[in-house]
Design goal:
Elements (H helix, E strand, L loop, with lengths): L11 E3 L12 H10 L3 H7 L7 E5 L7 E8 L2 E8 L4 H7 L5 H10 L1 H10 L5 E6 L14 E7 L2 E10 L1 H11 L8 H4 L5 E4 L7 H6 L23 E8 L6 E9 L2 E4 L4 E3 L25 E5 L6 H4 L19 E5 L2 E11 L2 E9 L7
Antiparallel strand pairs: 1-15, 2-6, 3-4, 3-5, 4-7, 6-7, 8-9, 9-10, 10-11, 10-12, 13-14, 14-15, 15-16
Helix pairs in contact: 3-4
Length: 364
């Protein structure tokens, strides 16, 4: 069936991702690109001894004349391609057979870099390999790399960063976590809704369906409201900001007339103590059936903390949970989730096949 309720004229088939139609990022390089595209990287580098005036910025660096060095830290490898013309001594070693002696000499030539990595927390870094050829996967495929410019005053040192093992990624993530990016004004102006938790009560679905205007629900109130007459201040009420089911900013407050006075320091929590909103009436007036609601179709991406959102810049990689073929489409009306669907094609048109509808009683 289509949106008008008529049978579809074209066969409906599940969407298949076109490998040539979407930009593809090497999976092993995605975590590296994510770190290099994080604005906190500058603060991390600036905090290192001897690197206060350095900046790392993504750049278009040709890979034709590079010598590749594999740096080893605690068994983890990370590849970096350095300009052979700017490092002739390294280039001479790269033209050699990559013997242990060549790697040891390369380590001496790269002492400033290795010392810098030591202050980063990567102790006992050594050169595990050196050569002219870009790194390859175990199956022989050439590994993807990303260009990077190391800027120091008027000097720009070009390099390319190749795949890095999880040990290097974990180290950089821990180091960058110490340097939260300042919250930009545009994000600071986002208004986060707050909720005063009055109480909660589990109600059977049958009871929810029978609710009508004028009905009274009892024994739902929070203990803080026990004996409340509407005049005296009420203490220890739960006040929350954020979306139920996610991390929330929580504090306790005293309700005094139209004012809420915080009693505790707000803190983050991942507990979902927010009452679930009541279900809609099982039956509605016929006139409401003709009401047109704006329905949006959304694909959930990823949830990011504000500190990470404020650190986004060009080149940052956001990894989705799956492909469009496997994505679930959220149907929302006025911010309320009303159904779930999947992408399909109908002829040459893109459609959404409904998988589940919430609040529908057609099956009753």
């Amino acid at each position: 069936m289509n949106a008008t309720g008529q049978p579809a004229r074209h066969p409906v088939r599940a969407l298949r991702d076109d490998p040539n139609g979407l930009p593809r990022i090497d999976a092993e390089l995605a975590s590296v690109a994510r770190l290099l595209g994080d604005a906190r990287l500058d603060a991390c580098v600036a905090g290192l001894d001897g690197a206060a005036d350095w900046r790392l910025v993504p750049g278009d660096v040709a890979d034709g004349s590079l010598c590749w060095v594999a740096l080893q830290y605690d068994g983890a490898l990370a590849w970096i391609g350095l300009n052979a013309d700017a490092h002739p001594a390294l280039a001479a070693l790269a033209d050699d057979d990559g013997s242990p002696l060549s790697c040891a000499i390369a380590g001496l030539l790269l002492t400033p870099l290795i010392d810098l990595l030591d202050t980063l927390g990567a102790v006992n870094v050594s050169v595990a390999a050196i050569g002219r050829h870009a790194p390859v996967h175990r199956d022989g495929r050439r590994a993807a790399t990303v260009g990077m410019l190391c800027v120091h005053g008027a000097h720009r040192h070009a390099c390319r960063i190749g795949p890095a093992d999880p040990g290097w990624i974990d180290l950089l993530e821990r180091r960058m976590a110490r340097h939260p990016a300042p919250l930009p004004a545009r994000l600071g102006r986002i208004r986060v809704p707050g909720y005063l938790i009055v109480g909660e009560k589990a109600l059977p679905i049958a009871t929810l369906r029978r609710l009508r205007p004028g009905d009274v629900v009892l024994r739902f109130a929070d203990p803080a409201f026990a004996g409340w007459d509407g005049a005296a201040p009420t203490h220890a009420l739960a006040l929350r900001w954020g979306v139920a089911g996610m991390h929330q900013y929580v504090a306790h407050a005293t309700l005094d007339g139209p004012r809420l006075v915080l009693d505790t320091e707000p803190a983050m929590t991942d507990r979902n103590d927010h009452p679930v909103p009541g279900a809609p009436d099982a039956e509605t007036q016929t006139s409401l059936d003709e009401l047109e609601l704006p329905v949006s179709f959304e694909i959930e991406t990823v949830t990011l903390p504000l500190a990470q959102l404020s650190a986004l810049r060009p080149g940052y990689v956001i990894e989705l949970r799956g492909t469009l073929r496997d994505a679930r489409i959220r149907l929302l009306a006025y911010g309320q989730l009303i159904g779930i669907g999947e992408l399909v094609t109908v002829g040459e048109q893109l459609g959404v096949r409904v998988i589940d509808v919430f609040g529908s009683h057609d099956a009753d």
